[in-house]
C-alpha cells in the first residue's frame, strides 16, 4: 500500500480525494454506501448567511460529456448548517471543508466568522457567485473583487482559508495571485464553466436560468491546464478539480501541481466514484513503485 496522505495548510488528509461542494450534500446519502472515513475530506454544499431556495427548474441539463446546472446556492443557511449538519459531519473522521458564498464581501465575512467559532477544519470560499454591489459580476472575475472578498473573509476567520476560483476568466494566474496576496492559504479550482443549451423545437434555453455551469469529464483538460498554470504562479497549495472520473485523472491533476483532488459530478453516475478513485490511485503508485503520493505533486515535465 502506497502512502496516500497529504498535508495542506497544516491539516492532515489520509488521502487526497475530497467530494466537491454541491454534489455530496452533507454526506448523509452517501453514507449508505460506504464509511465517510474512507475519504480524504468532504467539501460541503455552499452555505450562505440565510436560507436560499436556489433557481427555478429546469436547472439540470445533460451534455455529451457532463452536465449543465443552474441549481444556484440552494442551502439551509449558516445557522442551520452549524446546528444540524456540522456536528454530525465532525464525527466522521475526515477533514471537513465548509464551502461558503455570499452576495457581498460582508455577507461572506459574516458566514466565515460564524464558522471560525466551530470545529470545522477549513473554509472554502466560492468566489464564482455574483457581487450584487458591482452589477452582479462574479467576485472571481476581477482581481480587485477577488482580493476584496478574500481580504474580508481573511479578517473574519483564522481557520485555513481556501479560495475556490472561477475558470470563467482570461487569466487564472492573475486572480490566483490576487487572492494569495489577500491572505488565502490555498486555492481550489476549477468551478464550473459557463455554458448554455437551446431546445431547437421551442427555441427556449434548456435551463430556466438560460445559462448554467458545465461540469464533468468534458472540462477535465481545462482543469489540468488551469491547475498547472496556477501551481506555477502561486506559493500556496492548489487543490484541483473539474471532470475527474478516475484514479488516473487524479494522478494527472496532481502531476499538474495539485496537492489534493476534488471529485464532483462523477458521484452522480457512480456514488462509489471517490472510493474507487482512491483505490485506483493506490494501484498506480504501487505499479510504478512510488511509495508516497506526495512524490508526484507538480512533477509534470513540460516540453
Ligand atoms: C449540481 C452542482 C452543484 C454545485 N454546487 C456548488 C457549490 O455550492 N459551491 C461550489 O463552490 N461549487 C459547486 N459546484 C461546483 C463543483 O464543486 C465543481 O467545482 C465543478 O462541478 C467541477 O468539478 P466536476 O467536473 O468534477 O463536477 C457544483 C457543481 C454541481 C454539478
Structural class: alpha/beta
What gross morphology would you assign?
globular
- By CATH reckoning, the class would read Alpha Beta
Q: From the alpha-carbon coordinates, what is the Rg to the nearest angstrom?
A: 18 Å
- Contiguous low-pLDDT stretches (5 residues minimum) are none
| Count of separate structural domains | 1
How far do the termini sit from each other? 32 Å
Q: Can you walk me through this structure?
A:
- This protein has one domain: TIM Barrel (Alpha-Beta Barrel), CATH 3.20.20.
- The protein is 29% helix and 19% strand.
- It is built from eight helices and 16 strands.
- A hairpin with a 4-residue loop joins strand 12 and strand 13.
- It starts with 5 loop residues before the first strand and ends in a 16-residue tail after the last helix.
- It binds flavin mononucleotide (FMN).
- Flavin mononucleotide (FMN) binds next to loops.
Please specify the SSE layout and strand pairing.
Layout: E1 6-8, E2 11-13, E3 17-19, E4 41-43, E5 60-63, E6 66-69, H1 78-89, E7 95-100, H2 105-116, E8 122-126, H3 143-156, E9 161-164, H4 172-181, E10 186-189, E11 193-195, E12 198-199, E13 204-205, E14 212-215, H5 220-231, E15 238-240, H6 247-256, E16 260-263, H7 266-269, H8 273-287
Parallel strand pairs: 3-16, 4-7, 7-8, 8-9, 9-10, 10-15, 15-16
Antiparallel strand pairs: 1-2, 5-6, 6-14, 11-14, 12-13
Helix pairs in contact: 2-3, 3-4, 5-6, 6-8
The structure holds flavin mononucleotide.
Flavin mononucleotide (FMN) is lined by residues 20-23, 45-46, 69, 71, 73, 99, 126, 164, 191-192, 215-216, 219, 241-244, 263-266.
